[in-house]
Amino acid sequence: MAYQALYRVWRPQQFIDVVGQEHVTKTLQNALLQQKISHAYLFSGPRGTGKTSAAKILAKAVNCERGPSLEPCNECPSCKGITNGTISDVLEFDAASNSRVEEMRDVLDKVKFAPTSVNYKVYIIDEVHMLSISAFNALLKTLEEPPKHVIFILATTEPHKIPLTIISRCQRFDFRRITAQSIVNRMKLIIEETKIDCDEDALKMIARAADGGMRDALSLLDQAISFSQDRVTVEDALTVTGAVSQGFLNKLAKAVEEKDVASGLEALDELLFHGKDPSRFIEDFIFYYRDMLLFKTAPNLEESLERVLLDDEFRDMAEKVPFEQIYQLIDLLNKTQQDMRWTNHPRIFLEVAIVKLCQTEIKQTEQAPSGQITQLLSKIEQLEQDIQQLKVQGTVTAAQEAPSQVQKSAPRSSRKGFQPQVGKINEVLKSATKNNLNQIKSKWGEMRAKLMKSHAALLNEAEPVAASDNTFILKFKHEIHCQMAMDNSRFIETVSQALLELTGDKYLLLGVPEEQWLSIRESFLSNQHNDEGESGSKPEEEPHIAEAKNLFGAEFVEIID
Fold first, then answer.
1. Cα distance between residue 479 and residue 417, in whole Å
2. In 3D, which of 54, 52, 133, 58 has the Cα closest to residue 93?
3. Is 227 exposed, middle or buried (0-12, 13-18, 19+ CB in 10 A)?
4. Greater pLDDT, 410 or 53
5. What whole-number distance in Å separates Cα of residue 542 and Cα of residue 84?
6. What is the rounded CA–CA span in Å between residue 50 and residue 57?
7. Following DSSP, what letter does each residue of 467-525 receive, concatenated?
């Protein structure tokens, strides 16, 4: 076919032609001038933003006979051959249709051979995320130890599907969505060169419908040129993009503002009669009010507007609609859009939405009449006087009752911190044995696993230190944890029940902070020593302690519990 699509004819041939990706082209040009070319690149980003085009330009730049330079000359045999696709050393590989490991190995087998007609072999792998795991593994080995004459350029729209081992061996460049103004400027250059008559508003409509993709914009422009007669108008752009005209949106917004349900439903019937998609319409209407909100808050940010053009009718409508109403309208339209996704009759939801929009009342605070305000002020003054009298009476009563309250509260104020049950702890120490303590410690981990997370957290820095047949002492590192645990009856019961299931014995739990445990234990040992001195009898020593004293001498042996 003699005719070629606009996006093919106007495909970028130099870095300067890649629109909206200056952060990528500038970096690549500096690397070319400094001759710091990497062996692998990863170009990721939305469709139609110039990834493959930039890859081919880089392939021409590294192999240009007049290089190194900022741009390929596009005149030498190497540049012309790469552009025409006649140089076999620059291979453009489509991973979407060649995803198997066999195709990838067939390509990689030729990597080790030196290039025949240019300086570098360049492999451009498009849609690289479509490769199989085996193909990625085959590619990984080559990326680890690449020949000096090979450059890999991987392009993808879904970088999250690429293994991290591949990404880490590449220089990654993220291509951004192209702004609407940059797309319009590029299309203006094209229509001037091709001598096509086109409205600037039509170009803006096409640019916004392209959603940041230059290829989509040029395809829509090509379609609009074919649809139009002599001049591409806004109506032609609306027809090919499927969008709703701003005049229609202004008309519908006016019906909503004036609470005119009949006009709103008539406009909706007209829209559907012309074959517009209901889902596309409600999306455009949501963006219409979204743009209105942004225009009211930041009127200078015209580039941030998605759907509307700043005509006089839109400006007048934006001045009339308050912020509160915009919020309510967007919420209602958004809910309707969600409901339309799960129905076979979207028209019904649209008609109900239009009726609701026209009946929406702005939630405002009603102002009270001046007479009511005066009455409220007088009541407030009366209440203030009553409160002052009550304060005076309360002060006298408090002064009379103060002595008795001080006497009652004195014992309570003397208590500070957690008070352990010292008497019960001493009784446990008198009958405590190592066997009982070891039995509890051996099941301590299993017992904690049975507890809830909140209960187990209290035992993070707690340990049993002594145990008798039916009671054990639990030492806490922090007093606050001990207080929380001992005040929680459910915690105590849960711990006792868990130990009963594991050991077969029911134990009573006594908690004590670490600092107080040291003093209680020292006091108990000193009392025991005094009692032994008074009675004149000594407890029977354990055999291993007696043997140690015999071997090393009693003066060199220190017994540590």
1. 8
2. 52
3. middle
4. 53
5. 98
6. 10
7. E-SSEEEEEESSHHHHHHHHT-HHHHHHHHHHHHHHHS---EEEEEEHHHHHHHHHHHH
User: Is the distance from CB of 108 to CB of 136 less than 8 angstroms?
Assistant: no
CB under 8 Å to 177, separation ≥6 — which residues? Answer: 20, 45, 46, 49, 211, 212, 213
Share of the chain above pLDDT 90, in %: 16
* Average pLDDT of the segment spanning 261-275: 83
pLDDT, average across residues 368-391: 73
More confident residue, 1 or 4: 4
Measure Cα distances from 200 to 234, 299, 308, 318, 545 in Å: 9, 21, 14, 23, 102
**pLDDT averaged over every residue in the chain:** 82
The H or E element spanning position 44 is: strand 40-44
* CB contact at 8 A, 479 and 513: yes
Predicted TM-score of the model (pTM): 0.57
Distance CA 172, CA 167 (A): 7
Kindly give the pairing relationship between strand 171-174 and strand 150-156.
unpaired
Mean pLDDT computed over 223-228: 88
- Angle between the N-to-C axes of helices 278-297 and 323-340, in degrees from 0 to 180, rounded to the nearest 10: 160
Enter the tokens of residue 284: 């455009």
Backbone angles phi, psi at 99, to 5 degrees: -90, -10
> Under a CB-based contact definition with an 8 Å cutoff, are residues 72 and 61 in contact?
yes
d(CA 363, CA 331): 14
Amino acid identity of residue 10, one-letter, is W
* C-alpha–C-alpha distance, residues 247 and 263, integer Å: 14
Residues in Cβ contact with 508 at an 8 Å cutoff, skipping those fewer than 6 apart: 470, 471, 472, 496
Tell me, rounded to whole angstroms, the distance of Cα 285 from its chain centroid.
28
What CA–CA distance (Å, rounded) separates 88 from 116?
8
Q: Which of 312, 221, 249 is nearest to 5 (CA)?
A: 221
Determine the Cα–Cα distance for residues 6 and 25; give it in Å rounded to an integer.
23
549, amino acid identity: K
- Rounded to an integer, what distance in angstroms lies between the CA atom of residue 46 and that of residue 179? 13
What does the pLDDT look like over 117-154, one tens digit per residue?
Answer: 888 999 999 999 998 898 898 888 888 888 889 999 99
Residue of 515, 452, 437, 461 whose CA lies nearest to 488: 452
- At which residue do the structure tokens 């139609």 appear? 48
Tell me if residue 541 falls in helix, strand or coil. Answer: coil
Dmax over CA atoms of the chain, in Å, equals 125
CB 482 within 8 A of CB 418: yes
- From residue 550, give the alpha-carbon distance in Å to each of 267, 452, 537, 541, 553: 110, 51, 20, 12, 6
Structural domains of the chain, ranges and CATH numbers in brackets? 6-174 (3.40.50.300), 180-241 (1.10.8.60), 246-359 (1.20.272.10), 422-549 (3.30.300.180)
Using a 10 angstrom Cβ sphere, with 0-12 exposed, 13-18 middle and 19 or more buried, the burial of residue 85 is exposed
Radius of gyration of the CA atoms of the chain, in A? 42
The CA distance from 46 to 171, in Å, is 18
- Cα separation, 350 vs 337, in Å, equals 9
| Cα 298 to chain centroid, rounded | 26
Angle subtended at Cα 218 by Cα 216 and Cα 219, rounded to the nearest 5 degrees? 65
Sequence length of the chain is 561
